[in-house]
Amino acid sequence: MAVDSFRADDEHSPERPRPTGLLDVLSVAAVALDTNGRIVFWTPQAEDLFGYAAEDVLGQYAAHLLVRPEHLQAVVSLFSEVLRTGRGWAGAFPILHKDGSSRLTEFRTMRLLDDVGEVYALGIAADHTLLQRVETDLALCERLINQSPIGLALLDPDLRYLLVNPALERIDGVPAEDHIGRRLREMLPFFDVGTVESCLRQVLATGLPLLDQYHVGLPPSDPEHEHAWSLSFYRLEDPGGRVLGAAASVVDVTERHHAAAEADRARRRLALIAEASTRVGTSLEVEQTARELAEIATPVLADVVAVDVLDSALACRRVRRPDNGPELFRALALRAAHPTVALRAADPPGDLASYEGDRLVTLCVHTGRPVLVRHVGERDLSRIARNEEAGAYLARAGVHSYLAVPLIAHGEVLGALDLKRTRNPLPFDDDDVVLAGELAGRAAIAIDNARWFQSVRNTALTLQRSLLPDHSAHHTGLELASRYQPAQATSEVGGDWYDVIPLADDKTALVVGDVMGNGIDAAATMGRLRTATCAYADLDLAPDAVLQHLDRITCDLEHYIVTCLYAVFDPRTRRCTIANAGHMPPALARPGRVPELLNLPAGAPLGVGGVEFETATVELGPGDLLVLYTDGLVETRQHPIDDRLNVLLGFLDEPGRPLEETCDLLLYGLRHPEDHDDVALLVARAL
In the Cβ-directed half-sphere of 320, how many Cα atoms lie within 13 Å? Predict the structure, then answer.
C-alpha cells in the first residue's frame, strides 16, 4: 500500500470544519501501522495530539518516534498480540511528544484488513486528561439528571420528548417511556398548555431562556386537586450552533401555590371583615343592618344570602329555646350575586315563616352552632328549603353547598345567616365557617342594638304620643291643625309637645314647648309640664304668669331646660296675648301681606329660675295664620338659622291654603329624613 494514499492533510484538502461533535471536542486522533510498525496513516488530530506533522511521521517506525526506550518491549509485545489474535486493546499509555515530554494517552487498538488482505493496526487515541474530564462531566450530568429533585426533559425542535428524568415522572405521574416521542401538548397537564408551547417556541427561535414561568394544572396522578409548577426553558445547541432542541426544568411549587392562595384568601377575609366593620351597622334599623350584612357577604362568601331573625327576638321577647320544635322567622334581607331562581325559593323580606325542628336553619338557632353541608344532595335540599317546590328551585339553581351561621349577641341567638353557593364551584370549608361567623357576630351586635333601640324608641314614642292632645279642628274663632314628627336619625324621641286648651269665655290657649333632651325621661317630663300647663290655664292666668309657675316647676325636674310659647286667643276681641320662654318666634301670615316673625320678648327658658316673663299682644283678623313650632323644624347643622326662618316664611305665602296642606308643606319642605330632632307644629287660622 502506498504511504501517500493515507495522507489526510495534503495541500489541496478543504479547510478543517469547525468542531461540532463530541469527537471533535475530544480531538480523537487515528493512527494506522503496517505489520512492520511503520506509520501509514496520520490524521490532523494526531498532529495536534503528538506534535508531529504527517510528512514527518509517515513511513517512520512508530515505536522510535512515540515510545520511550523503557516501554519499547511492552509496546512491541502488545502490537504483536493485536496483529496475531485480532483482539483489540484499550488502555492508557504514556506517549513521547515531539517536544520531548511524556503525555498519558488513552488508546483503543484493533486489527484492520484491506481489500487485498493486507493487515494493519489501527490506534484511536485521545488525551487521557481531557477524556477523563469529559467522562467526569458526563457522569456528573447523568447523576444530576437522574437524581435531581427537579423535573428535567429534553425535547427536539418539534417539541417531542427525547429524555425525561425520574423526578419528572414523579411530578406529572407519567412513566418516562410514555413521554418519549410524544409531543409536549399531549403530556402537559396545564390549563394554559398553548401558552407553554408558545413560550418554548420563542426560546427555540431566539435562544433567550425563559425562567420561572408559573403554571397551574391537574396532573393525572392527582386529578382532583390543583397543582402548580415553575417551568424554565433553555435552547440546546451543538458547538457549531445547530439547534438540537430544548431543555425544560420543572419544579413542583404546589405547596408554595397553596400557601400563596391561602395567604390571598386570608387577606381577602381580613379585607372583608374590615369592610364589614364600616358597612354593617351604619344605622339603628334592624332591616337596614340585615341588608348591609347580605350585601357584604355577596358574592365573596356566597352566591345567595338570606338573613332571617327570630320573630320573638325581634319583638324583644325572651322565650325558652325549644329543643326540636318549630321556630317563627321573619325574613329581613335577601340578596343574590347574579340572577337565579334560588330567590324564588326564599322568603321575601318582611314575611313570616315557620320552620320545623328538622330544618337546618332551625337546628342552627336551636344549637347556636354553624350548620355546614359541604356537598348538598337531594335529601339535604328537603332540610334546607321550606317546602318541596322551594327545594326544586334550589336544585334548578345549582345549589351545591350550604352554610347557616347563628346570629348571636350577648349570648342570645337572634336568628341565622343563610348562605348558598351556586356558581362558585368550591364548597364551603372551615375557613368560610370562621369568616361567616365573624361577619354574623358583628352584624348580630348591630341588630341587637337596633332592635333594642327600636323597642325603647317605640316605647318613648308611644308615651309621647299618648301625652299629646287629641283636639278638635275647630275652636271658637279658630281653625286648627297640628303635627308631631319624631326624629328619624336619633336613638330616642325628644320632648317636643303642643297643646290646645279650651278656656272660659270661648278663649283658647295655644301651647308649644320643647324639653331639651330625649328619651323616655324627656317624654315623661314633657307630660308633667303639659299637665301643669293645663292646670294653670284653668285658673285663667295671664300667659306670663303661667310661664312663671312652669319655671318654678321645671327648676325641680332634674335640671331640665325647657323652651315654651304660651298664647291665649280671645275671639271676642280678636286679640292674641303671647308670652315666650326662650322659644322660637311664631310666624304670622296675613292675606295680602308678606309673612313675618312676631317680634316678642325672648325670655329665658323654663328651669333657669328667677326670671320675669313678658306678654305681647297681636290682633288676628279673619284669615290670619299663626304658626307655632319647635326648633326641630328649622334648625340644621349646615344652614344659618336666619336663612331657615326665611325659608319657613316663604312657605306661608298663601295663608288661605288648607291647614292640613300647610302642615305637610312645612314638614316636607323643611325637614330632612336624617334630621336629629323632633318637631311639634301647631297652625291656627282666625275665622
Answer: 4
